[in-house]
Design brief:
globular, 355 residues, single chain, four-stranded mixed sheet, alpha/beta, Four Helix Bundle (Hemerythrin (Met), subunit A), Rossmann fold, 2 domains, seven-stranded mixed sheet
C-alpha cells in the first residue's frame, strides 16, 4: 500500500511524483511555493482536490519561510504566492478555492506575524484534514448506488492520487463497496493523451486488489452497447451552479454514450469543486507533445518518451471538456446525492452563496 500522496512536516511538503507512475514510486520534496507551482504545472501533482491541498501548502511554505517583519509584509508575500499558484492551471476550481480560503484567513488573523504565519499553516493542514473526511463521505454516499456484481466504467484518475487522501472521489464509492464485500469489476478508460487511467487508476485498483481491465478510450461505447457496463462514475474539476461539469477530456463523449445506452452517469466531487460565480469554464490547452509522444518503460528500465506521429504533425490538446447537465444522472457529494439542477445544487448549500 502506498504511503500518503501529500504530506507536510517541518516546512517540507512531500508529494508523489505522478508523472513517474506506475513504473516508479518517487517523491518530490518542496520547500517553496515555486516548487509547488512547478509540481502543479508539470502535473507531478494533479486532480482537482489534490491540487487544492497542494496549493494550500504552497501558501503555508511562503508563511513558514517568510522573513517579514510586519503582517503587511507577510500579507503582500502571500498575495504574490496566491497569484503564482492560481496561474498554474486555469480549470480546477479547488485550486482557486484553497488559495482564496488561505488569503481570507490571513486577512482576519493579522494581529502579529507569528499569528498570521501559524494561522496560515494551520489552515492548510485543516484543508488537508477536511479533504480526507469529505472524500470518505463521498464514498459512503456513493456506495448506495453500487449493487453487488456491478460493472463500472471510470475515466481519467479520480482516486487517492487525485485527492491526496485515502479515498478519492469517483473511486471512493468503489473502495467502500469493496470493503463492504461487494463484488465489482472496473473498466478503466486509458484516458489519452496522458493515460491517467491506464497509468494511475489501474495502479490504484491493483493496490486495492479490485479486478479491472484497461480499455482504449474508443472501446467504451462497444462495451456499453454489449450491456457489459452498468454505470459510469467520473470526477470533476469544476461544476457550475447550473450543473455544467468540466472534467478530463473525453468525459463528455462518455456521458453522451451512456445516455444513448440507458446507463446512469454519475459525477463524484466535493462541494469545494462547485463554482457559483462563473458562467463559463476556462479550458486549459496543454502542449502538443502530450499528443505527439507517448511515455513508457524501455527494455533497459528507463522511462522514455517516444514520438508516435510524423515529425511534421501538429496537434491540439484541450485538457478538459464540458458535460451538460442533461447527460448527468446525479452528482455525488459529501453532503448528499443530487440532480444537476440549480435548485438542488443550491439546496446543498442551504441556499447560500457557495464558499
Amino acid at each position: 500500500m502506498m504511503s500518503k500522496v501529500i504530506s507536510w512536516k517541518n516546512g517540507v511538503l512531500r508529494l508523489i511524483d505522478q508523472t513517474k507512475l506506475p513504473h516508479k514510486l518517487h517523491y518530490v520534496h518542496c520547500k517553496s511555493a515555486d516548487n509547488v507551482a512547478e509540481c502543479i504545472k508539470s502535473m507531478k501533482v494533479r486532480g482537482a482536490p489534490a491540487i487544492g491541498v497542494a496549493a494550500g501548502f504552497g501558501m503555508a511554505l511562503t508563511a513558514f519561510y517568510s522573513k517579514a517583519f510586519s503582517t503587511k509584509e507577510l500579507f503582500v508575500e502571500l498575495e504574490k504566492t496566491s497569484k503564482k499558484l492560481i496561474g498554474t492551471r486555469p480549470t480546477a476550481s479547488n485550486l482557486f478555492w484553497a488559495v482564496d480560503r488561505i488569503m481570507k484567513y490571513a486577512k482576519v488573523n493579522a494581529n502579529s506575524v507569528k499569528e498570521m504565519r501559524e494561522g496560515v499553516i494551520k489552515e492548510a493542514l485543516e484543508i488537508e484534514k477536511e479533504n480526507e473526511m469529505v472524500c470518505k463521505m463521498i464514498g459512503e454516499n456513493g456506495v448506495k448506488l453500487i449493487k453487488d456484481g456491478c460493472r463500472i466504467l471510470t475515466h481519467c484518475n479520480a482516486g487517492r492520487l487525485a485527492t491526496g487522501g485515502s479515498y478519492g472521489t469517483a473511486l471512493a464509492p468503489i473502495y467502500v463497496a469493496k470493503r463492504q464485500g461487494k463484488s465489482l469489476f472496473v473498466f478503466v478508460d486509458e484516458t489519452r493523451p496522458r493515460c491517467q487511467g491506464a497509468k494511475l487508476t489501474a495502479w490504484e485498483l491493483q493496490q486495492e486488489n479490485i479486478p479491472y481491465a484497461i480499455i482504449a478510450d474508443n472501446a467504451a461505447g462497444y462495451y456499453m452497447q454489449k450491456g457489459e457496463i452498468d454505470m459510469v462514475i467520473v470526477g470533476a474539476d469544476r461544476i457550475l451552479s447550473n450543473g455544467l461539469v468540466a472534467n478530463k477530456i473525453g468525459t463528455y463523449e462518455k456521458a453522451v454514450l451512456a445516455k444513448e445506452n440507458g446507463i446512469p452517469f454519475y459525477v463524484a466531487a466535493p462541494t469545494s469543486t462547485f463554482d457559483s460565480k462563473s458562467k463559463e469554464i476556462p479550458i486549459e490547452e496543454r502542449g502538443e507533445d502530450e499528443v505527439l509522444y507517448m511515455q513508457g518503460l524501455s527494455n533497459s528500465g528507463k522511462i522514455e518518451k517516444v514520438r508516435i506521429a510524423p515529425k511534421v504533425s501538429k496537434a491540439k490538446n484541450p485538457a478538459f471538456d464540458i458535460t451538460p447537465a442533461r447527460y448527468i444522472t446525479r452528482i455525488i457529494t459529501e453532503r448528499g446525492i443530487v440532480k444537476p439542477k440549480v435548485r438542488e445544487i443550491k439546496r446543498l448549500f442551504k441556499n447560500k452563496i457557495l464558499d
